[in-house]
Each structure stands twice: as C-alpha cells, then as structure tokens.
Amino acid sequence: MSENKSQFCKQVEDNFQKACQYLDIDKDVLNQIRETNAIVHFKFPIRRDNGRIEVIEAWRAQHSHHRKPCKGGIRFAEIANEDEVKALAALMTYKCAIVEVPFGGAKGAVKIDSKKYSVAERERICRRLTFELHNKNFIGPGIDVPAPDYGSGEQEMAWISDTYSSLNHELNAPACVTGKPVAMGGVRGRTEATGMGVAFGLREICRNKVLMEKVGLPTDILGKRVTVQGFGNVGYHAAKYLSEMGARVTHIAEFEGIISNPEGLDIKSLAEFRQENKSFEKYPSGSFSKKRDDIFSVDCDIFVPAALENQIHEDNYKTIKAPIIGEAANGPITAIASQKLFEKGKIIVPDIYLNAGGVTVSYFEWVKNLSHIRFGRIDKRFDQGKFENMASLMSEVTQKDISSSLIEKFSKQGDEAQLIASGLEETMIEALRQIIEVVEENDYKIDLRTAAFVTAIKKVGKSYELAGIFPG
Ligand code: NAD
Q: How far apart are CA 133 and CA 121, in angstroms?
C-alpha cells in the first residue's frame, strides 16, 4: 500500500512536470509552485471509552500560500501518511485554481479507521485535533479551512466549528471549516455538490463536437450509457444527476458486486433499497453479479470510477471499453494507464477538474459565513416583484392577459439550493471552457489532465508574479 501512496505522490509530480513543457514560466517560480509551503505532523492523546489512552497521529499540509486561506479536506484513514497528504494538498492547489476559488491548497489526515471508534471517541478526537491545529496556527477563517473528506462528514465539521468558536470569540469563527450542517452555518447543496459537478462536467464534455467526433459518439449526454464504480456520496449523486439529464446508468458496482439494467437503473429506488438491505443483491429491477471487477470491462459510453484511487492500472486498462472515463474519485487511474488510455484515443476527464464541485460549494459556504446571510434572502422577493410588475405592464400595453401560471414560471426566484446549483453549473462550464482552450491551442494533441494542470499552474504562477515575489 505504501508503494501505492508514494506512487500517487510521484503521479502528481509527473503530471506537474508534463504540464511544465507547455508553460513559459520561470523555473524558479515553478519550483515555488511545486513545493509544499508548510506541514505539521503531530500526535495527541485521547481517552478511549474503555479508559485507555491512545496516541493519535495526524498531519496538516498547506501546499500553497499564494491565496489565503488554504483549503482542503481532513481524511480519517488508517493508511494515511505524509506523502499522500502532501500530494493531495498539491492537487487541492491546482483544483482551486481550475475552478477559480480564491484558496491555496491544503489537506489533513488523521491516521484512524473512524469505523472503529464510537461517536463519543470521534468527538474527542475532533475537538483535540482542533485544539492542536489552533495552537499551531493551522486553522482559521483566513488561515486554513478544512472540510470533510474520506471518513469524515458533517458531524466532524460541526465539532471542529464548535471547538474553534469556543477558542475564538470572533464573528467569523464558523467560517473556519466548511461542510457543516445547515443548522450550524452550512450551505444547502454541499452534500450533493461533488456528484452534481461530475454530472455537469460530463454533460459539457458530451457537448463538445470535436471530442465526440473523435470517439464517434453523438454530441449530447442524452441516451449515453453510463457505468459507475462506487455508490457512496459522489457515485450516487453523479448517477442521480446524470440520469436526470437523460443518460442511462446501466451498471453500478459496489463491494458486494454489480447491479445492472440495460434500460437504465432507477437511482433513487436503488439507493433506498441498498440503504435498507446493505446490498444490491436482491434488488428486484436489475440483474446482480458478484464479480465486481467486471465493471471495468462493461460495454458503455462513459465509465465513472467514484470509489478510490489506483483502480485502473497497467494490468486492467486494456479491458476498458468506454471511450469516456470521468474521474469522479481522486486518482482512480495510475499515470501509466492514463497515458496508455489517452494513446488509445480515450477521453479522460481528470479529477482535478471533474470532482471540484465539492470545493466550489465549500467556497460558497465560506462566503455565506463571512457575509452572515443566506444566499437569495435579500433579493428573492424583490426580484419576484419586479417580474410580476413587468408582466402586468406587458399585459396593459398589449391588452392581452398573461396567464398566472406563466407569470409564476417567469417570476419564480431560486432558493439557496437552486442558487448554489446554478453557481456550480456556471463554474464547471467556465472551467472546462478554459481547459478546452488549451487543448485547442495544442491541436487536440494534449490530454485533458495536462491541459487542466496547464491552466492551474498558469494562474498560480501569475499570482506569484503579480505579488512581485519573483520580479522580472
Ligand atoms: P464514500 O465512502 O461515500 O463512497 C465510496 C464508495 O465506494 C463506498 O460506498 C465503497 O463501498 C465503494 N467502494 C470502495 N471500493 C470499491 C470497489 N473496489 N468496487 C466498488 N465499490 C467500491 O466516498 P465519497 O465521498 O463518495 O468519495 C469517493 C471518491 O471521491 C474518493 O476518491 C474521494 O476522495 C473523492 N472525492 C470526494 C469528494 C466529496 O465531496 N465527497 C470530493 C472530491 C473527491
């Protein structure tokens, strides 16, 4: 496993180097962009429910200070290590730059399997972790803002926010962390954000005429056959929104096996069934197979790995039939497999773009916390009134009745969740436009991952240059 981890680190490094060939940036600036700016590695005790004291190991890496605060999740995973935290923090810098959220990249890890700890123990870990980060000046609304990641969720963020707020009686204290429950200053739509962003990103890829011509598919998401690996937060929401956009999700793999239906699976009912039965096995509207690794060779248009890293590698990349692979998980394809698949003409939509929906909506939450007002609260009724007035004016001028249902349709203003979804959609469309611009400049001979790195490094480099750190 540690080999995989250092491989992952090397992968990020290799992708960076590859992108540098397309960039006209001073090599000293590139060195500064590449390096991790700060990291803390610390250990702290917590009392287990059985009375024993356990020493917990943790890291927080701030990869880049070109924008502040730094931003990135905290992983709770038994296999966490410093290399991995640094690599993930670097990816966060590039991811934030791609979707233009004003943060430097960061990542944290707590080396535990959270499933082996009671709720009370996890609370003690989170509160002590926050003390430690606070004492080291590694947390704060303008310093470093964690978020959920593998093994952590809303509840952990609530404990972190509460502990930080009790140490800092400042107005903006809740902005020290994102991914909080709505009742504690979270934003509606954060939970589904990453999967929704994946769906928006894949829809936009399918709208690109040149790319679709290359793989011989029609330019639309409508009717595309989709296969998903992993039915957790990201996999479920990606499948749900892709279905709503008109794609046909035919196969989904989980630990127990694969569920399939050539007509398209009903994602909501499947999720409810699995929640209740803890398995796809007896789901009535699909066929079940225990061979979960067959998911890689399913005949489909889009394959969405949404489980873990290093799933597609040298030994299995040849079995992939899908012409489009959407990296919903972080690092699901190894560097070698990625290169080989690109050479075979596959479109790989890279993680640093495709799963950036989470950090985008985290940014909206942070802005909401700093502005102390829910999105849409001031203007919703006002805008609605404006549309209604306009409709009655039109009716007066034209001497024609405008139906109340039409007025309602046009005057309806978005609530917070709708505004968040609309901001996310705009972000994913604009970020892809910039990546495609690099692809076009290079006559489609550059892969989307390298193009995404190019756009990210350019933006980070620009802010160092403008800050005058590297004159000339
Ligand atoms: P999750 O734990 O909710 O879901 C992962 C699912 O994958 C689980 O249900 C697990 O059972 C399943 N799985 C694991 N190994 C599998 C295998 N071999 N075959 C089939 N299924 C398997 O996690 P998540 O939050 O959905 O994250 C998934 C990936 O997306 C991770 O790489 C994560 O880093 C990345 N990601 C998540 C977010 C987010 O907002 N949650 C944001 C960006 C990136």
A: 18
Distance CA 44, CA 128 (A): 8
- The model carries a pTM of 0.92
Question: Quick check: CB of 150 below 6 Å from ligand 1?
Answer: yes
Residue 276 alpha carbon to ligand 1 centre in Å? 19
Instruction: Give the count of alpha carbons within 13 A of 119, CB side only.
Output: 3
List, for residues 37-71, the tens digit of each pLDDT value.
999 999 999 999 999 999 999 999 999 999 999 99
Atom 3 (ligand 1) nearest CA:
232
Place of tokens 């590698």: 313
Q: For residue range 74-133, what is the model confidence (pLDDT) as tens digits?
A: 999 998 999 999 999 999 999 999 999 999 999 999 999 999 999 999 999 999 999 999
- Ligand 1 centre to CA of 328 (Å) is 9
The pick from 12, 88, 228, 233 for probing ligand 1's pocket by mutation, whose C-beta has the most ligand atoms within 8 angstroms, reads 233
Contact, 305 vs 325, CB < 8 A? yes
Residue in 5, 107, 224, 346 annotated catalytic: 107
Contact 67, 459 (CB under 8 A): no
Tell me: the pLDDT tens digits for 175-212? 999 999 999 999 999 999 999 999 999 999 999 999 99
107 is known as an active-site residue: yes
Name, in order, each residue with C-beta under 8 angstroms of 335's C-beta and a sequence gap of 6 or more: 10, 11, 14, 15
Closest protein CA for atom 20 of ligand 1: 254
Q: Which helix (H) or strand (E) holds 333?
A: none
Contact 445, 432 (CB under 8 A): no
Residue 355: CB within 6 Å of ligand 1? yes
> Does the CB atom of residue 256 touch ligand 1 within 6 A?
no
Element (H, E) at 292: none
